Backbone:
């Protein structure tokens, strides 16, 4: 009966969590835990997602097709998981499109896994954040179905996406997604950009904010605060892109399709 209470409160859980629970209930032996997991899996009470990660299945529901929350799977994949990049955009409800991939920051794993044709991709926290002990800067803790989810704020998400465009879903996705945000705390954006200490990222963020001044309520003083940190040499806005227009203010070469926002035509 107590196990049912645990499953009701933990739609997705790590093995360690249920082991700790059973330990309190007097079922702490390793073999006992293994037998209990096997029993509840056989009964259809739980389903194994991957090693040491499980989901609870409500009574009477088919474990093979019962829908599971991908955000909870990602955030429970490792003890230090933080939803980030495009997945954070989706969580906040601002993504232009829905991806078949969940991305999360973690230092506990480097291996992606697949569940029901969905990819769950771990990404290491930027080294500069680790060195400064700031992995959790601008991370929000949000209750989702009784489980607290750690997710990057919209301010940090924007900078992270511009820091690693390959995890964004493309430039059109970034532009369209932030069109509906309306407001960002610019001081948080600027502060986080400076913490990353990446001149290319400063240039991308500066260019993006300048191009979206009205939408995001960006002030000229915000842009001037970034200018001293731009790269000393020309940089492409994305490593995989060549050619384009030189934006002198940011020492950045931007492809014409981005400058002209050709996706709006």
Residues:
């Amino acid at each position: 009966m107590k196990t049912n209470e645990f499953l009701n409160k933990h739609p997705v859980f790590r093995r360690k969590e249920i082991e700790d629970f059973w330990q309190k209930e007097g079922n702490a032996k390793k073999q006992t835990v293994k037998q209990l997991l096997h029993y509840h899996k056989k009964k259809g009470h739980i389903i194994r997602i991957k090693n040491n990660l499980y989901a609870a299945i409500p009574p009477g529901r088919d474990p093979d097709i019962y829908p599971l929350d991908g955000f909870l799977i990602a955030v429970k994949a490792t003890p230090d998981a933080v939803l980030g990049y495009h997945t954070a955009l989706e969580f906040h409800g601002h993504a232009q499109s829905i991806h078949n991939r969940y991305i999360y920051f973690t230092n506990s794993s480097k291996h992606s896994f697949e569940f029901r044709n969905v990819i769950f991709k771990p990404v290491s926290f930027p080294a500069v954040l680790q060195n400064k002990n700031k992995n959790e800067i601008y991370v929000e803790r949000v209750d989702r179905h009784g489980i607290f989810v750690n997710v990057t704020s919209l301010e940090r998400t924007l900078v992270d996406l511009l820091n690693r465009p390959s995890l964004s879903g493309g430039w059109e996705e970034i532009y369209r997604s932030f069109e509906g945000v309306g407001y960002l705390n610019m001081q948080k954006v600027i502060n986080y950009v400076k913490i990353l200490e990446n001149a290319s990222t400063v240039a991308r963020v500066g260019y993006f904010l300048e191009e979206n001044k009205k939408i995001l309520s960006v002030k000229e003083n915000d842009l001037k605060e970034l200018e001293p940190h731009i790269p000393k040499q020309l940089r492409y806005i994305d490593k995989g892109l060549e050619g384009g227009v030189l934006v002198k203010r940011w020492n950045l070469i931007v492809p014409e399709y981005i400058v002209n926002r050709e996706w709006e035509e």
Summary: The chain has a mean pLDDT of 92. The longest helix spans residues 30-42. Residues 30 and 132 are 38 Å apart (CA to CA).
